[in-house]
């Protein structure tokens, strides 16, 4: 009797094991594939990436967003997730069809739905998946990382992943997530370029494959600070100071504008020209007008001497800076005659003739 009972228990356990295995055969069938990530960014440029490590310039974070199961009856891979927002994306997308609470990609595929073909069909959804993973505090975290242009492939379980590219040494989203658009992209800075990366939706199914990182480039712009110090001021005689700023890079003018300060009291003012001058440009700042009352005493450049070059901010946040100091010149036109007055409105230098009522020079 004991032998029969033990045999019965063994059979029941074996049956349960078979049922459990059958129930999970597609989600945990030990299917693993090798994936490589490449880019055509030159190694010279990769070496300039800010936030790189000794081993890598760029890495890819892999977020597992859905499970993939093969359905032989319809010859399709089925996608599912325990995350409701992910399932809503499948439901609302015209690229998917629903079957018993799971979703498959519409269309006919001749080779058992290769990963590349599925990736093409899913390409338009990548930004929406990335939005959920990166911006909505959904609790998703990367399950793996892959080096870009690495010799060795990264081995992944069969599943659907979002691949997010970032500088290898940065782990805080604030350091590489683009915040000024709704497309949920990431970026990396080199010295004078900004690389912007698209998220990539990767279905890992049955074969090894290589993913080429998608990116665009733009000129990287820096900041320039102009500091104006007026040591003494004449009562009832405001001081206006006009600056002409030009910048050149590789022999071409890349920026030109006028900026002004008006002082009603002695002291210091400053302005920052933000994100308008390309990195590496050589800047010339000229005080073109200070009136007859206030004389220029000194000019200091953050570079110590000319030329002043636009560079990334240092660890303390310091940027390229030109400081001009003026003082009361001990003589000023107080009365009848003409005083030329200048102003800058939206970058345009304007001139006004001011006819004064009383003449004389005061010293």
Characterise this structure:
With 363 residues, the chain is mainly beta. It folds into two domains: 30-219, no CATH class; 221-362, Collagen-binding surface protein Cna, B-type domain (Immunoglobulin-like, Sandwich). It has helices at 2-24, 43-46, 84-92, 115-122, 126-135, and strands at residues 32-38, 58-71, 76-80, 96-99, 102-105, 144-147, 154-157, 159-167, 186-189, 193-197, 200-204, 209-212, 215-219, 221-230, 239-249, 252-263, 267-278, 282-289, 294-301, 308-309, 320-328, 332-333, 337-345, 348-356, 361-362. The strands form eight sheets. Strands 2, 3, 6, 8 and 11 form a five-stranded antiparallel sheet that branches. It has a four-stranded mixed sheet with strand order 17-14-21-19, with no helix packed on it. β4 and β5 form a beta hairpin. The model is unreliable at 1-29, 334-342 and 349-363 (pLDDT under 50).
| Distinct helical segment count | 5
User: What integer is the average pLDDT?
Assistant: 81
Strand content: over 45%
Give the ordered list of helices and strands. HEHEEHEEHHEEEEEEEEEEEEEEEEEEEE
Low-confidence stretches: 1-29, 334-342, 349-363
| Helical proportion, percent range | 10-25%
Regarding quaternary structure, how should these chains be classified?
Answer: single chain
- Rg, Cα atoms, Å: 33 Å
Question: What global shape is seen?
Answer: elongated
The domain tally reads: 2
Give the termini separation: 124 Å
Q: How many strand units? A: 25
Largest sheet: 5 strands, antiparallel
- Helix and strand composition category: mainly beta
């Amino acid at each position: 009797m004991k032998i029969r009972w033990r045999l019965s228990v063994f059979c029941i356990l074996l049956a349960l094991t078979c049922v459990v295995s059958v129930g999970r055969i597609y989600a945990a069938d030990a299917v693993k594939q090798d994936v490589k990530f490449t880019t055509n960014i030159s190694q010279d440029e990769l070496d300039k990436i800010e936030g790189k490590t000794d081993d890598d310039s760029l890495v890819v974070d892999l977020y597992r967003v859905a499970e993939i199961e093969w359905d032989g009856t319809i010859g399709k891979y089925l996608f599912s997730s325990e995350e409701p927002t992910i399932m809503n994306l499948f439901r609302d997308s015209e690229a998917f069809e629903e079957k018993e609470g799971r979703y498959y990609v519409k269309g006919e595929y001749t080779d058992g739905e290769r990963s590349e073909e599925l990736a093409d069909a899913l390409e338009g959804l990548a930004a929406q998946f990335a939005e959920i993973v990166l911006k909505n505090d959904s609790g998703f975290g990367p399950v793996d990382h892959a080096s870009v242009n690495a010799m060795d492939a990264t081995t992944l379980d069969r599943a659907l992943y979002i691949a997010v590219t970032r500088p290898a040494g940065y782990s805080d989203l604030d350091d590489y997530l683009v915040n000024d658009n709704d497309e949920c992209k990431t970026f990396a800075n080199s010295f004078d370029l900004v690389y912007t990366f698209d998220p990539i939706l990767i279905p890992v199914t049955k074969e090894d494959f290589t993913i080429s990182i998608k990116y665009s480039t733009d000129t990287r712009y820096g900041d320039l600070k102009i500091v104006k110090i007026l040591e003494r001021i004449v009562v009832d005689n405001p001081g206006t100071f006009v600056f002409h700023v030009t910048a050149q890079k590789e022999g071409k003018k890349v920026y030109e504008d006028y900026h002004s300060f008006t002082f009603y009291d002695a002291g210091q003012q400053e302005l920052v020209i933000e994100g308008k001058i390309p990195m590496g440009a050589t800047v010339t700042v000229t005080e073109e007008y200070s009136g007859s009352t206030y004389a220029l005493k000194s000019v200091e450049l953050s570079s110590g001497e000319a030329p002043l070059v636009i560079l990334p901010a240092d660890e303390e946040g310091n940027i390229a800076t030109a400081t001009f100091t003026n003082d009361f010149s001990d003589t000023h036109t107080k009365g009848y005659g003409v005083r030329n007055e200048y102003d800058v409105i939206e970058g345009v230098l304007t001139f006004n003739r001011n006819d004064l009522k009383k003449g004389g020079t005061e010293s």
